[in-house]
Amino acid sequence: LSTFPAIAQEAILEYFEDPYEESVILTDDEEIYFIDIDMGFELPEGSRIITAEEAYAEISFGNGAIIKLSGDTDFTIDDLQTEEGGENVFTMTMGKFRTVAGRATGDEKYTFNGPSAVCGVRGTDFGMDVPITGGQEAAFVLDGLIDYTNSAGETIELATGQMADALGDTFEAIEIP
């Protein structure tokens, strides 16, 4: 499950667009609307980013990794990997994200939790789609390799050009249509 360097991570809201000025960041201490902050805002552990319908946000990390959030996404930074160990853990309850990895050293760990599935990352360019309407929890890989685990504890590998739906009738890798 290696993708990112085992260095102390810093999550930065690198870029965002929000035409309706409704997107918000929730932290332990406050509720901050995108309109009230500048790009480059540091996101502490526990930050919950909720993008409005036509909004878009990019979170960057010290190793060059980027997570891109689409509109109507609810995404939480649960934990950030430190020099002492641990892993980067995120939760997405709805929406869509795509991540492009930075440099790898072999000690990195990124885990993305959905409502009923988990992506353990070993790849470089992948994403997840959890529609607000439910009925699907899909992961897709554009370049690289990930482990994808459903709520039954079954794990499959998804490689470049593959996807799977953790809520589908069969939990298996298929070619991206």
Compact description:
By secondary structure, the protein is mainly β. The protein is built from no helices and 17 strands.
Task: Write the SSE topology.
Blueprint: E1 11-17, E2 24-26, E3 31-33, E4 41-43, E5 48-50, E6 56-60, E7 66-69, E8 74-79, E9 88-100, E10 110-113, E11 117-121, E12 125-130, E13 138-143, E14 145-150, E15 155-159, E16 162-165, E17 174-175
Parallel strand pairs: 9-10
Antiparallel strand pairs: 1-4, 1-6, 2-3, 2-5, 5-8, 6-7, 7-9, 8-9, 9-12, 10-11, 11-14, 12-13, 13-16, 14-15, 16-17
Description of the structure:
The protein is an all-beta fold and 177 residues long. The chain has strands at residues 11-17, 24-26, 31-33, 41-43, 48-50, 56-60, 66-69, 74-79, 88-100, 110-113, 117-121, 125-130, 138-143, 145-150, 155-159, 162-165, 174-175. It has a 17-stranded mixed beta sheet that branches.
State the major sheet: 17 strands, mixed
Termini separation comes to 26 Å
Radius of gyration: 16 Å
Strand tally: 17
- Give the overall average pLDDT: 87
Low-confidence stretches: 1-6
Helix proportion range: under 10%
Helix vs. strand class = mainly beta
Element-level helix/strand string: EEEEEEEEEEEEEEEEE
Number of helical elements: 0
Shape descriptor: globular
Strand content: over 45%
